[in-house]
């Protein structure tokens, strides 16, 4: 059975890979393993060695610490609920990933204008009392 840490690291691996628009095959090719191994890492079935974690981080242009961000301390009173919170995390939703990808396909000027529009809409919603 997978350890909570292995599950957390696997979810973070999947989230980052998807955010980058990479397939399991793409990532596997970059780190020299088969895509099935990436599948096992992502579901927590196989533990990731320190050297492989470093290779994965380099391939996805992140620090190794990224994989451990948000992991609860072992003595945290609500550690059991962390898996539930991770599932509901907005960054893991397909719609969010599609939006981020589309945003970064835009040029710099349209991106800035879109961001300004989103902030203006947020301000309108906040000021009108609608949640």
From TrEMBL:
CDD domains: HTH_XRE (cd00093). Gene3D superfamilies: lambda repressor-like DNA-binding domains (1.10.260.40). One of its GO terms (molecular function) is DNA binding. It comes from the Bacteria. PROSITE patterns: HTH_CROC1. InterPro entries: Cro/C1-type_HTH (IPR001387), Lambda_DNA-bd_dom_sf (IPR010982). This is Cro/Cl family transcriptional regulator. It comes from Hyphomonas pacifica.
